[in-house]
């Protein structure tokens, strides 16, 4: 168990957790592991039980010829041996349990909630030794889950279904089925298939790592190699320091992170970021005060969603409920933009919303950060705003959007993170275009830098991006981008050489 890189310790508050067994350098490999089981996330709409791509769950939708459960045409026709669907296929076929067609193929499909827990149970039968060694010690919060609303639902939809119609009553006790469900709820990590569809996997070593809203461990999952997972340290870690992964999205505000962790992981996070009303000086959840000039409104107790919010300058107070309501209103407005066609109007609508709330939200607020993400992928890609046609002022806009996100990522996902690499990739192109544009106008310098200095800066950015994305599965979108970044870097280096 990764003895050379980390040690497992235990304490009442965290349970088992990992610490660095020696000094580790940023990017150093921590461990690799194969998932104990992998399958659809909870509440997935109808999807192929082999590759997780969305399928039609209605009458006449694609089905497995053996068991009658959803399987896309490609996986049915593949002729090869099914890997992930094989286990439940045998169970369903032997017991004549068919998939019932659903009306709405975009809504969560309750019938599929049993798939991943069943795969965990079948994996236990196939490898009792690994179950005993790695899964048995894992936390599954039995008592808390019994109190929750989902216990009864799961008892009916999953436990009773697997032990009754599926004929598994003798093989798996009701307690064991609930344990499999709990293990997944509490410990599973989200992954993506080669085509970019969501799934979840049970990775026992990664689950040992404690949670923090500023992780120092990054991981990449390789769907083309059996969803093998590779974990590395994102920053330098000293011997004996705790190793942290994150169980939520780092780019959500404290209120949302706390509520996700309470509901699904059954704990309150007390990391320095959560305890700090300014979220480590980023003001990621901060509002601007309308009652005075330059005042910032933050929560008086970030761990309590009902706590008062107060302006640090004029003392104006408002309730946590009012703040959440305002945030929800803005969120809903932004969610509607996702329905816009992928054209100029979409970009302009995001810019309009961004301007509309400029006097309400702190510049680095999580809502502004998410709008920036949307804008970054639109500038340079959509008709009317393609890279070659962007004027300098819009190239500068894209650079500014990227740099603002990097300011947040430097604090919340420091070091060699995938999110950082994706933004660096977006940043390099407008920097090159701006350098070339200034040069074409006969200007020797831009912002006090020569053309060569500017291109070298872009090359460094591409190099950092490519080095991080190089850890990704080459078949995934990020892995493909790693290759593109390396080719662009080679071309850029050639252009720089011709300047000598």
UniProtKB/TrEMBL annotation:
<dbReference type="InterPro" id="IPR053010">
    <property type="entry name" value="SET_SmydA-8"/>
</dbReference>
<protein>
    <recommendedName>
        <fullName>SET domain-containing protein</fullName>
    </recommendedName>
</protein>
<dbReference type="InterPro" id="IPR046341">
    <property type="entry name" value="SET_dom_sf"/>
</dbReference>
């Amino acid at each position: 168990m990764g003895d050379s890189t980390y040690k497992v310790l235990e304490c009442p508050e965290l349970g088992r957790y990992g610490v660095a067994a020696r000094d580790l350098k940023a990017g150093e490999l921590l461990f690799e592991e194969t998932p104990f089981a992998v399958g659809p996330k909870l509440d997935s709409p109808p999807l192929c039980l082999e590759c997780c791509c969305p399928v039609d769950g209605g009458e006449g939708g694609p089905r497995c010829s053996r068991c009658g459960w959803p399987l896309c045409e490609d996986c049915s026709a593949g002729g090869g041996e099914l890997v992930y669907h094989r286990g439940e296929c045998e169970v369903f076929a032997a017991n004549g349990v068919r998939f019932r067609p659903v009306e709405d193929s975009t809504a969560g499909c309750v019938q599929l909630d049993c798939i991943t827990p069943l795969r965990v149970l079948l994996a236990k039968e196939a490898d009792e030794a690994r179950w005993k060694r790695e899964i048995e010690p894992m936390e599954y919060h039995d008592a808390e889950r019994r109190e929750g609303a989902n216990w009864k639902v799961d008892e009916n939809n999953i436990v009773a279904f697997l032990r009754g119609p599926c004929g598994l009553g003798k093989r798996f006790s009701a307690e064991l089925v609930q344990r499999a469900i709990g293990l997944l709820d509490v410990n599973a990590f989200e992954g993506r298939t080669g085509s970019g569809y969501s799934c979840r996997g049970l990775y026992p070593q990664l689950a040992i790592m404690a949670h923090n809203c500023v992780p120092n461990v990054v991981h990449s999952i390789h769907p083309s190699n059996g969803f093998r997972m590779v974990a590395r340290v994102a920053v330098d870690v000293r011997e004996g320091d705790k190793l942290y992964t994150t169980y939520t999205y780092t780019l959500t505000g404290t209120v949302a992170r706390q509520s996700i962790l309470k509901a699904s992981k059954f704990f309150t996070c007390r990391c320095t970021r959560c305890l700090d009303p300014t979220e480590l000086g980023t003001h990621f959840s901060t509002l601007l005060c309308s009652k005075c000039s330059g005042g910032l409104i933050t929560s008086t107790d970030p761990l309590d969603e009902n706590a008062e919010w107060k302006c640090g300058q004029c003392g104006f107070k408002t309730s946590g409920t009012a703040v959440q309501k305002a945030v929800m209103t803005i969120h809903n407005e932004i969610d509607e933009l996702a329905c816009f066609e992928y054209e100029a109007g979409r970009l302009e609508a995001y810019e309009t919303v961004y301007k509309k709330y400029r006097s309400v939200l702190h510049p680095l607020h999580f809502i502004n950060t998410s709008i920036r993400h949307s804008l970054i992928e639109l500038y340079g890609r959509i008709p009317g705003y393609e890279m070659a046609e962007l004027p300098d002022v819009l190239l500068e806009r894209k650079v500014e959007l990227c740099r603002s996100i990097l300011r947040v990522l430097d604090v919340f996902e420091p070091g060699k993170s995938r999110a950082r690499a994706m933004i660096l990739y977006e940043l390099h192109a407008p920097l090159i275009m701006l350098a070339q544009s200034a040069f074409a106008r006969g200007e020797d310098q831009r912002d006090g830098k020569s053309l060569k200095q500017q291109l070298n800066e872009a090359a460094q950015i591409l190099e950092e991006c490519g080095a991080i994305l190089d850890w990704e599965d080459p078949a995934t979108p990020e892995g493909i981008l790693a290759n593109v970044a390396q080719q662009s870097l080679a071309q850029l280096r050639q252009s720089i050489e011709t300047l000598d």
